[in-house]
Design goal:
By secondary structure, the chain is α/β, with parallel strands linked by helices. It contains 7 helices and 7 strands. It has helices at residues 24-39, 60-66, 75-80, 82-93, 110-119, 171-181, 199-226; strands at 3-8, 44-49, 96-100, 126-128, 137-139, 146-152, 185-191. A 5-stranded parallel sheet has the order 2-1-3-6-7, with helices on both faces. Strands 4-5 form a two-stranded antiparallel sheet. Strand 4 and strand 5 form a beta hairpin. The longest helix is centred in the last third of the chain and has 28 residues, at 199-226.
Length: 227
Amino acid sequence: MATILHIDSSARSGGSDEHRFGSHSRRLTRTFVDKWRSIRPDDEIIYRDVGINPPKPVTGEWIHAAFTKPEEREPWMNAELEESDRLVDELLRADVIVAGVPMYNFGPPAQFKAYIDNIVRVGRTFGFDRNRQGVPYWPMVPAGKTLVILSARGDYGYGPGERLEDQNHVEPGVRTPFAYLGVTDVHSVAIEYDEFADERLQASIRSAERDVEALVQHLGSGLSKAA
């Protein structure tokens, strides 16, 4: 049995297939999860909505607590890291992380950045030793996890080799910290043309949903073979 960590980060509360002003990224993550359940009904799904219930941003107290050795932490430090610990625990349990991350002003939503800041934890998801030969940092998240980034954009042409590739900080902004932790198997699908609200948007939605369903089939069958 596999575990899927389903994360939504859109500020919109529903999918675009539910109402006019709904979220395209939520629509894609639900498509992913529904398709996954249809072919692997016994797998565990963990749901985390950081768009509606964002994690607390990192503070000076959080940093002080995180960089204090666990055996030396005072009670308030453990309380300060409680939410972060829950998020890290979920990440470590997951085999597949499917994250809905819409483009807000060329990058991920602040809510998702707060999530990333809470899971990049010294001693839990990455190691650090200034006396280590070579690079003093190393990933601590177990190998074999897969990250799926499902996004939505108002404009078009943000993909590799396209006209706005250098302005797309969503996928790179998510891939980089996850790779730092050890998650390097990454797939992405995005809906474009949202601001145009015409047939190009509808075609992009249809194409993205097909790609998501094909990706689920590919990943799900791969896990079955591995098992």
